[in-house]
Specification:
The chain contains one helix and nine strands. By secondary structure, it is mostly beta strands. A hairpin with a 4-residue loop joins β4 and β5.
Amino acid sequence: MKKRAQLGFIGAASALFVGFATSPSQAATQHYATCFTSPLAASGSVSTSGWDYNDRSIPSLTMKVYDEAPDNHHVRIRLVVSYADSYQYFPWHANYSGYGTYKEFPSHVARGGNIFDVAIQVGVFEGNKRLDHCTKWVSGSTKDPS
C-alpha cells in the first residue's frame, strides 16, 4: 500500500509539471527541467520563457517545488545560471507547508552576460542543513556544480 500511495504522489507531482506545456509558436523559446531527490522526498521544475541559449537575460521563469514525503523536513528550490566562466546561485525558496504540497515561484534573470544554461536545485532540509538534493539543467545535464 505504501508503494501504491508513493506512486500516486509521483503521478500528482508529474501532473503539476505538465502545466508548462506551450503552443507551437512559443516552443522555440521555452525550456524546461525537472529533478527528483532520492530517496524520493522532493521534486521540482523550472520553465523559462523568452530565453534561448546565449541570450543575456531570461524575461520570465517559473520554479515549482513539491514536498513528496511525510518526513517532517521542508523542501527548497533555487535557480543556478551558467555563464561563460562562472555560475550564479540564486537564493533558496522554501516550501514549509508539508507533505503533499507545492509552491510556485515566478521570477526572471536580468544580468548582462550571455547565459549558457539554466538549472534548478531541489533540496530536502532540516533547519538550514541540506540533507539531500538534485540538480538538473535545461540542456539535460545533471552536472552538479555545488
